[in-house]
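Exercise 7. Given the encoded structure of a 264-residue chain, write a plausible sequence.
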């Protein structure tokens, strides 16, 4: 792709972190952005700060409650005339051991990170098929490539996204529909602050792994470049992403190393 100008890009989780970074980057490149998250006020504030705010629109949504997603997709398509990209970014992390996590919390994380995610994709898919074009950009995680301490439900939800979108790609390639799955590692966002503990409450702490992680701006630049190159999968981070390669080729070494890593 040579230009993002006038491309219609829908971004979930647009009110903070990587999602907000995607919004700001692509708006600066001339894209027309659909900003989605739970809080309308936050979205409107970000929209007002973008270049040409009149070109963008806010569609509040809650990934935990997805029954109205087809109606929201119809609103977006009717207003914008097309949808070129869905950046499915919204989600929720976890900081609790499996033994301390009630099943209700596992279900909630799966509802938001997996079912809410694919519900939005399925709402957009008919328009991609109608256009014979479209690109799903899915924000998974390095935790979607291997399990990790305090992440049992989160890791499971991210693993599930890989299975869904890899299958979807095979089924819809005939319709010129593309998929990019991004697996960020340690990125300097508030994901750990908002992560759920075993009581279903926010963890409330900035983990060292996030505080010392890659900047959002660098992460987003790498992500956008991967999308432009139509890569199927991209690992984004620093040294931590090497663990994926080590697991694949040297599994015994991987488990020796991973056991010594800090959970936070």
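Solution.
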């Amino acid at each position: 792709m040579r230009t993002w100008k006038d491309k219609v890009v829908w971004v979930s989780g647009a009110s903070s972190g990587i999602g907000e970074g995607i919004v700001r980057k692509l708006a600066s490149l001339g894209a027309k952005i659909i900003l989605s998250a739970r809080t309308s006020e936050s979205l409107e504030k970000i929209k007002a700060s973008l270049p040409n705010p009149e070109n963008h629109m806010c569609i509040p949504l809650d990934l935990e409650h997805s029954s109205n997603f087809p109606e929201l997709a119809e609103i977006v398509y009717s207003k914008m005339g097309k949808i070129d990209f869905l950046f499915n970014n919204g989600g929720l992390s976890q900081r609790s051991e499996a033994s301390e996590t009630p099943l209700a919390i596992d279900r909630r994380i799966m509802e938001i990170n997996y079912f809410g995610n694919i519900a939005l994709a399925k709402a957009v898919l008919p328009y991609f098929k109608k256009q014979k074009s479209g690109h799903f950009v899915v924000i998974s995680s390095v935790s979607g490539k291997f399990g990790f301490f305090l992440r049992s439900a989160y890791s499971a939800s991210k693993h599930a996204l890989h299975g869904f979108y890899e299958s979807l790609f095979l089924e819809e390639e005939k319709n010129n529909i593309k998929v990019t799955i991004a697996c960020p590692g340690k990125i300097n966002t508030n994901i750990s602050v908002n992560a759920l503990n075993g009581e279903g409450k926010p963890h409330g702490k900035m983990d060292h792994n996030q505080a010392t992680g890659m900047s959002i701006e660098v992460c987003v630049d790498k992500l956008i470049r991967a999308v432009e190159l139509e890569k199927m999968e991209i690992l984004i981070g620093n040294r931590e992403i090497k663990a994926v390669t080590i697991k694949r080729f040297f599994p015994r070494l991987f488990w020796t190393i991973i056991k010594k890593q800090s959970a936070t």
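Remark. Residues 8-258 form a domain with the Rossmann fold fold (CATH 3.40.50.720). Students should compare their own answers with the one above.
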